[in-house]
Amino acid sequence: MDPNSAIPTDASETSDLNTSTILAQFRSFEGNDAGPVLNLSAGFTSDQLSIVLNKLLDNEAAVPYAFYIDQVELTGTGSLHQFFEQQNKEKEKQTEKGKSKNKVDSTNVSEQLVVIQYRPQALYRVKPVTRCSSDLVGHTEAVLMVQFSPDGSMLASCSGDTTVRFWDLHTETPLFTCKGHTNWVLCIAWSPDGSILASGSMDNTVRLWNPKTGMQIGRPLVGHKKWITSLAWEPYHLTNHGGVARNRKLASSSKDGTVRVWDTNKQQCLYSIGGHTASVTSVLFMGTLPPQQHTSSESNNGGNKSGVESILVTGSQDKTIKLWNSANGKLIKTLAGHAHWVNTLAISSGYVLRTGPYDPAPPADSDDKENIELNVALKKFNDITFNNKLPERLVSGSDDFTMFLWNPLNDKKPTARLLGHQKLVNHVCFSPDASYIASASFDNTIKLWDGHTGKYLCSLFGHVAPVYQLAWSSDSRLLLSCSRDSTLKTWDVATRTLKGDLPGHRDEVYTVDWSPYGDKVASGGKDKVLKIWKN
Question: NLE domain: from which residue to which, for each copy (predicted)?
Fold first, then answer.
């Protein structure tokens, strides 16, 4: 029996589904069956399926789950019956458009085996932010980027006034003003353990800052010929703790078309990558080791003990994406397909790479804190990739109005082309659990896509001007957006509706970030004010 044919193909066949039963097999994303084949009511919703699955798995405490049939999520309060009806309607539309050449023979759904894949969701729920608790004044030009530290305890911002600033989240007051750059500071990035903040500027330099003192660490990192566009730290779980200090490797991309990888301990450039023929707009590290160097022992023994380096990904205005071995800067492969500039990149493991060893945080007084932190970071990465059974996925957004979903380690061609935006795609990001992709566009909309297949899910309407940036809540249930229209908006992913409108800024809002703890949101923009939002 083919489980892929589980969905009936004729809407008339589902008229009595709500009172019928369905042969169902629960299966994890790792491919493991949970319990025997069951006769389930077609009227069951995802909440009722969660109750059944929790009993099958003998969970002591109830765990919420997301369910998928043929890679399509069973959302909201809809029943299996309603799910099949909706799928039939979509198949009928495809048949009318000529996309479906062959119609599958009609069979009763109760006689087919339905494979229901499941994925655990966050046990906790993040509450939507509803009010502005503080206006943090200090910057004298537009706030260009805000970012919480990996553990959510600190907040940093950068501005057109040439400064980087740290803010006290307990008192919601200024903490340190960091001066040194001589032009706009365009980007900032926290090291995986939160002990260093890197900043990139239009003065062509990268600087490192100590968040506990506000002082610059060492000398500026000099070498780029034009301004810095993006910064990325090597993932915590790939750091070689065997004699090499953590937070060693930082990558910077530039308008000059190059990427430089720096040894931050020595404040010197390890090498420069010059393979792109136009501005490099985005740089990030993957959490997976290069294919020729990846072994099971390296991925499960508590870290990268062999000195094997990681993979660097770059996107450029030359329309290409490139993968590099960060050990030596050698090109691994080029991903081509976009017809215009690549504006933005995101990796499916992005959230766990950002939060590193935190959430949950290791005991502060542990005698072996370093190894505990390393193991926590590694476990989080293995969980999001199902112990490397589910490869990291990459999504790219472009000036050609499209997005591509890639399996970058295994394929040179995209696995899906994501169409729908009517203007350039400005920002893309995976949800923390990698189940969704959200995209922001200059067409004033946000779109949600399936994080595994790239399938279009919905459009979120509400902004009346271009949407600049997005931020997910740590439980993947809420999405936040900021726009040229001076507002922030909170969206409910399950119901795919507007949860709340957050006016308050007096001009364009350029940047937004949601604390990993979920209790605070920070935003900044053209009005020079950094706002803190709470529930």
Answer: 22-76
**Digit-coded pLDDT (tens) for 143-177:** 999 999 999 999 999 999 999 999 999 999 999 99
- pLDDT tens column, 200-235: 999 999 999 999 999 999 999 999 999 999 999 999
Residues 193 and 255 reside in one and the same domain? yes
Residue 489 belongs to domain with CATH number = 2.130.10.10
> Do 418 and 438 touch, CB atoms closer than 8 A?
no
What distances in angstroms separate CA 86 from CA 5, 89, 91, 93, 137, one per listed residue?
Answer: 15, 5, 9, 11, 50
Domain range for 274? 131-382+467-534
- Asked if 339 and 286 sit in the same domain, the reply is yes
3-class SS letters over 128-141: CCCEEEEEECCCCC
Give percent helix, percent strand, percent coil of the chain, each to the nearest 5.
15, 40, 45
- 337 and 295 in one domain? yes
Mean pLDDT for all residues in the chain: 86
- Least reliable range by pLDDT among 70-74, 145-149, 297-301, 373-377: 297-301
Indicate if 292 and 374 belong to the same structural domain: yes
CB-based burial of residue 5 (10 Å sphere; 0-12 exposed, 13-18 middle, 19+ buried)?
Answer: middle
**41: which strand partners?**
21
| Residues 448-451: contacts with CB under 8 Å, at least 24 apart | 448/479, 448/493, 448/496, 449/403, 449/405, 449/418, 450/71, 450/72, 450/73, 451/348, 451/393
DSSP-derived secondary structure letter, 42? T
- pTM exceeds 0.90, yes or no: no
Residues 249 and 147 in one domain: yes
pLDDT at residue 290 above 70? no
Copy the structure tokens of residue 24. Answer: 């169902």
Record the tokens describing residue 519, joined without a space.
Answer: 């209790």
The two beta strands, 394-398 and 173-178, are unpaired
CATH number at residue 27: 3.10.20.90
Clarify whether residues 111 and 170 are in a common domain: no
Same domain, 135 and 112: no
The total of other beta-carbon atoms located within 10 Å of residue 279's CB is 20
In this structure, the answer to whether residues 77 and 185 fall within a common structural domain is no
| pLDDT score, position 21 | 84
Q: How far apart are CA 298 and CA 435, in angstroms?
A: 26
Beta strand pairing call for 446-450 and 21-28 = unpaired
The CA radius of gyration of the chain, in Å to the nearest whole number, is: 24
Among 74, 93, 120, which residue terminates a domain?
120
- When divided into structural domains, the chain yields a total of 2
Q: Is residue 447 part of a domain?
A: no
Measured between alpha carbons, how far is 75 from 46 in angstroms, rounded to an integer? 7
In a domain, 353, yes or no: yes
Cβ neighbours, 10 Å, residue 101: 7
Position 291 scores a pLDDT of 58
Answer whether residue 106 is part of any domain. yes
